[in-house]
Amino acid sequence: xxxxxxxxxxxxxxxxxxxxxxxxxxxxxxxxxxxxxxxxxxxxxxxxxxxxxxxxxxxxxxxxxxxxxxxxxxxxxxxxxxxxxxxxxxxxxxxxxxxxxxxxxxxxxxxxxxxxxxxxxxxxxxxxxxxxxxxxxxxxxxxxxxxxxxxxxxxxxxxxxxxxxxxxxxxxxxxxxxxxxxxxxxxxxxxxxxxxxxxxxxxxxxxxxxxxxxxxxxxxxxxxxxxxxxxxxxxxxxxxxxxxxxxxxxxxxxxxxxxxxxxxxxxxxxxxxxxxxxxxxxxxxxxxxxxxxxxxxxxxxxxxxx
Length: 306
Fold this sequence. Notes:
Largest sheet: 5 strands, mixed
Strand content: 35-45%
CATH topology of the largest domain: Neuraminidase
CATH class of the largest domain: Mainly Beta
CATH superfamily of the largest domain: TolB, C-terminal domain
């Protein structure tokens, strides 16, 4: 008998590469990123900005008209301290910032010079600061969920949390991403507070003194097109609110009803920025309309209208 001839095996066919599946996957990724980063919302807001009338622009802060004037200046001596917020004092014509890593209050010039450092005894993680007037400065501690109403004079050398009235801000959805933003709305006699994540806004009645009235109230935050909330500023000329997001590299303007008005993307090449602002944590404005920002760890910015 003769041996059977060996049978040739057919090579296994490789699965065909499907461009359609790749396209679908890319679309899903793009939609996911668009949802997470609110690219669609920004696109719609940009289109809305293009059709805004001259009167609408004049009645708002109108962020597209701003261009950087001081671009990422280092705050000398604060390299390891992580600037966390910013507030303008119209009496002294200076800015106050809190340091979240090493707890102290820093007074800055409008050009980013460090004028003095005031140690904060008893604070664990100060993330928000607000000048109310008459020497009253509120400091928000994110870790302790407290807002402390301090008094600061030109002679103040140190502040001890035990010496001042404190207000419990209550629990947050994410206890590690609690209250960061705080601003004084003199027109409506209220303090506005911002929760970092998920971004949320609250109000607390105040007459500008160290004594608050009632309890804080949650506001609608449907139009906060950002991943996190870093800081707030209430503009008394327009009644509008500026909301800053470090993770979204975004400064957003809302009107008194909470509607989106304008925005500024804090990225390289826009509004004159030479580099993307790495982590914008504080925003303030003076009576001339100049916008100031600080970014971790120790970068200082100012923006002026064109």
